[in-house]
Amino acid sequence: VVDARQIRKSYRMGEVVVEALKGVDVRIDHGEFTCIMGASGSGKSTLLNILGCLDRPTSGTFDLMGRSVDSMDDGELAEVRNRFIGFVFQTFNLLPRSSALQNVELPLIYARVPSRERRERAMAMLEKVGLASRAGHRPNQLSGGERQRVAIARALVTGPALLLADEPTGNLDSRTGRVIMDMFHSLHSEGNTILLVTHDPEIAREAGRILRIKDGLVESDTAN
Amino acid sequence: VVDARQIRKSYRMGEVVVEALKGVDVRIDHGEFTCIMGASGSGKSTLLNILGCLDRPTSGTFDLMGRSVDSMDDGELAEVRNRFIGFVFQTFNLLPRSSALQNVELPLIYARVPSRERRERAMAMLEKVGLASRAGHRPNQLSGGERQRVAIARALVTGPALLLADEPTGNLDSRTGRVIMDMFHSLHSEGNTILLVTHDPEIAREAGRILRIKDGLVESDTAN
Ligand SMILES: Nc1ncnc2c1ncn2[C@@H]1O[C@H](COP(=O)(O)OP(=O)(O)OP(=O)(O)O)[C@@H](O)[C@H]1O
Ligand SMILES: Nc1ncnc2c1ncn2[C@@H]1O[C@H](COP(=O)(O)OP(=O)(O)OP(=O)(O)O)[C@@H](O)[C@H]1O
Ligand SMILES: [Mg+2]
Ligand SMILES: [Mg+2]
Question: Is A176 touching B (CB cutoff 8 A)?
């Protein structure tokens, strides 16, 4: 489902060039559950953003579900993202002036789901992450872990074929983290593909495969 | 150093009142190293913000280093914060248009440290958290864990008598988290007071005392 080759990403800052990714190959088959691990600053979020069609590599090729992403324009990318991809950002990226419920409804609005069904599905997802009583709260009226769970609910609400989650349990106690991991496993058991970035070895243990990134390169890629 | 009694915090949202803290007593002596744990949404950040003089309780009394905080005006609170308190926010709260170095210098500017000494001390702190090469980057040019480390460096740069840190290792791999915990222990060994919120039981194990919060109340408060 993901076939990325020789992915490079560099940032020019005046006279200095920061090479966040230095030639990464990632191939993920349908239905795999993979964790990405690596030190802070090693390039994990940069890689995930590229695989989630939120950013373009400086060079390299990337096919998503058999189609070349490099040849798509921004409109086509947005369409692919909405139809197939759920993304949990490391910094949540919720709409600040919308409620938790409105934030979770957003992917369903893009998918043109009728408003009553949209509201029911969004509320059901908020209930699953334990936030039914917080549906009307805006992000600045929520705790850190509540915002993280709203971001997770939003990513899961369309039942995406490919879920990309950037450190999704970092702000959660272990019981709440368990609820979230069970939801990911449930999505996985329906045949979907999961790619999780985590710093937690306990979480990584639950994946079928662990990809370790070091200094912008793949250090190891092993079945779990 | 901290004597807080019957702290309540409620938020009015239309007809609903959310009681984030329902009568919490916290007493912390000079030189203690305490961890606060509890489920997502239980009230930890709300409590930490009040103890760090960043927010006021709805009711209750709070003495900091023997002085009543309730009777201070905002100017006096700001002065107390700058002189005695280092605060690591759960969401980092860095100045978006300033570099990492400028962000770390900020408490030294308030403390009227001369510019050359200020720059040297801020750079030394960035080096300790492994970010010397990122000194010129703005927050949106940094990884999640790099932003967290800048927030930590800023909180530590004045060598505060009271360090309050809200989930300071949530975005860090274990090796980088170890570096940060060693810096906290070093500050502690100089006689300073540390209050850490964490979801990580491995981190909590390193404290002298664990305070568990549940639904806005203290569930337990035990020596470690
Ligand atoms: N401005 C606000 N208005 C209404 N409710 C709020 C507001 N801020 C926080 N809350 C609620 O108060 C409760 C406690 O929030 P707090 O941020 O202290 O939780 P926490 O223990 O730090 O959680 P986490 O581990 O997820 O960071 C949460 O349930 C939250 O929804
Ligand atoms: N816009 C940018 N300009 C310059 N450098 C950048 C930019 N964005 C990221 N970087 C650098 O690229 C490197 C990789 O960043 P990335 O966010 O992928 O790291 P990460 O592995 O996700 O780290 P963490 O575990 O801390 O979240 C970092 O060292 C960071 O400083
Ligand atoms: Mg990251
Ligand atoms: Mg919190």
Answer: yes
